[in-house]
Every structure is written in C-alpha cells, then in structure tokens.
TrEMBL record:
Residues 8-62 form the HTH cro/C1-type domain. It comes from Pedobacter rhizosphaerae. SUPFAM superfamilies: lambda repressor-like DNA-binding domains. CDD domains: HTH_XRE. This is DNA-binding transcriptional regulator, XRE-family HTH domain. GO terms for molecular function: DNA binding. The keyword DNA-binding applies. Keywords: DNA-binding.
Length: 80
C-alpha cells in the first residue's frame, strides 16, 4: 500500500509551494493536483516521472518515502 498523496504534500510543503504553483509546473489543473494529494487517483508511470523531474527526486525514492509514510501511520495508529 502506497500513500503517494501524503508524500507529495510533504514535498510541496517543504518547498513552500502552493498547489496551484505545482499544478502549473506539472501542466495540470489545481483540481487534478488536489486529487493526487488526496489519493483520489492511481498514479501512472508518466505522472510519477513528472513528479520526479519537478522535485528532482528519483521515482524509487518517491516510492520509498510513500512506504515510510504508511509505516509511520500504521505504527502510530490509535487502534488497539
């Protein structure tokens, strides 16, 4: 299970970018980008390549970071 959306939000926030700025740079609408961050779409390899190029982060690192987010969420879930 990947949570690329939260990873994208982390990257965007760490750079101080707005959703609109990132969407413009990726040549998509802000609504489409919001759907990416909210995990409302399945990511294609082309989308991951765009993200990788924009943030200068290898695709495998994006995937690793996404798994780390999921691991953190599971570890810190309040269900017992």
């Amino acid at each position: 299970m990947l949570d690329i959306g939260i990873t994208l939000r982390k990257y965007r926030d760490s750079c101080g970018y707005s959703q609109q700025f990132v969407a413009n740079c990726l040549e998509i609408s802000r609504v489409s980008y919001r759907k990416w961050e909210n995990n409302e779409v399945d990511f294609s390899i082309n989308q991951l390549e765009k993200i990788s190029e924009f943030y200068s982060i290898p695709i495998d690192q994006i995937i690793k970071d996404s798994y780390m987010v999921v691991g953190y969420m599971i570890k810190h879930s309040s269900t017992k």
